Structures are given as C-alpha cells and as structure tokens.
Amino acid sequence: QVQFVESGGGLVQPGGSLRLSCAASGSMFSIYTMGWYRQAPGESRELVAHITRNGNTLYKDFVKGRFTISRDNAKKTAYLQMNSLKPEDTAVYYCNYPNVLQSWGPGTQVTVSS
C-alpha cells in the first residue's frame, strides 16, 4: 500500500514562500503522475498542480506563475515551491497520484496570515 507523507507547511505572511515536500513509499513513484492538492476549511479538496513522470507540468489558474511543482524520482519525493503566497492559499496540502488515487496522507497545514 502506498503511503504519502507531506511536510514543509507552516505560518507565513502574505507574499512569503514555502516549499512543501511529499515522500512516497512503494515502487511506482517514477511511473505515475504526481499531484498536489489542497483543502481549505469547509471546502472540497482540489487539485493544485500535477507533474507527469516525464516532468510535464500543469497548474490551476489560481496558482499559475506562483507555484512550481517538481519531482525527484530517485528520492521518491515531490515538491511544491510556493511563492507570493496569499491568504486564500491557506489550506491543508496533500499529494497523491491523480490517475490512481491512493489513501491520503496526513497533509501539511499552510497558513498565510499577517
């Protein structure tokens, strides 16, 4: 069973930056597209960005130009560099394989507030 462990969240002021990490278990990491999701209080979980096994990326409009997704297949780790953070980016962030969803990890809390 695949497990994900997200880390790197925290409290940051508007305009600040954070880098999230997602460590995955299992042997399929290098094969699957990896996605970062977020869930704000009272909202549904939503996909933020994804990266294919070949490194092709796709971003939702609300993070385009501010967030960068990357992956290290050798380390079985994905990253989300978040710049120019806004209060509306406040959420718990998760990672998963969009095409073959696995059990969700604990997520990492990102709070953007002055």
Task: Describe the structure in your own words.
With 114 residues, this protein is mostly beta strands. It has strands at 4-7, 10-12, 18-24, 34-39, 46-51, 57-59, 67-72, 77-82, 91-96, 108-112. The mean pLDDT is 96.
Descriptors:
four-stranded antiparallel β-sheet; 114 residues; six-stranded mixed β-sheet; mainly beta; globular
Compact overview of the structure:
This protein has 114 residues and is mainly β. The protein contains no helices and ten strands. The strands form two sheets. Strands 2-10-9-4-5-6 form a six-stranded mixed β-sheet, with no helix packed on it. A four-stranded antiparallel β-sheet has the order 1-3-8-7, with no helix packed on it.
The largest β sheet comes out as: 6 strands, mixed
Taken as a percent bin, the fraction of beta residues is: over 45%
Write the H/E string, N to C.
EEEEEEEEEE
Q: What would you call the shape?
A: globular
Proportion in helices:
under 10%
- Strand runs, count: 10
Question: What value does the average pLDDT take?
Answer: 96
Radius of gyration: 13 Å
DSSP summary: helix tally = 0
End-to-end separation: 40 Å
Structural class: mainly beta
The residue ranges in which pLDDT falls below 50 over 5 or more consecutive positions are: none
Q: What is the strand arrangement across the widest sheet?
A: 2-10-9-4-5-6
